[in-house]
């Protein structure tokens, strides 16, 4: 079961798995964006 708001609702495992993958993709996209945005600062810190 996945906890939602104030009550537990049954959810198919395959549905939960798909939702997790979408969240992982979102995190990867944000991470790549931040790395690109801050690339110059990261290069300075690496010196």
Give a written overview of the molecule.
With 47 residues, the protein is of the alpha+beta class. The protein has two helices and two strands; from the N terminus they run E-E-H-H. A two-stranded antiparallel sheet has the order 1-2. Strand 1 and strand 2 form a beta hairpin. The longest helix is centred in the middle third of the chain and has 25 residues. The mean pLDDT is 78.
Protein topology:
Blueprint: E1 2-4, E2 7-9, H1 13-37, H2 39-46
Antiparallel strand pairs: 1-2
Unreliable sequence segments:
none
How many helices?
Answer: 2
- Report, as a whole number of angstroms, the end-to-end distance: 49 Å
Strand content: 5-15%
Q: Classify the secondary structure makeup into a structural class.
A: alpha+beta
Report the principal-axis shape: rod-shaped
- Strand order, biggest sheet? 1-2
**Mean pLDDT metric:** 78
Rg, alpha carbons: 18 Å
Helix content: over 70%
Secondary-structure element string: EEHH
Number of strands: 2
Main sheet summary: 2 strands, antiparallel
């Amino acid at each position: 079961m996945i906890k939602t708001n104030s009550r537990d609702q049954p959810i198919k495992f395959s549905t939960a798995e798909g939702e997790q993958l979408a969240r992982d993709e979102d995190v990867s996209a944000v991470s790549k964006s931040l790395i690109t945005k801050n690339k110059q600062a990261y290069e300075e810190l690496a010196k």
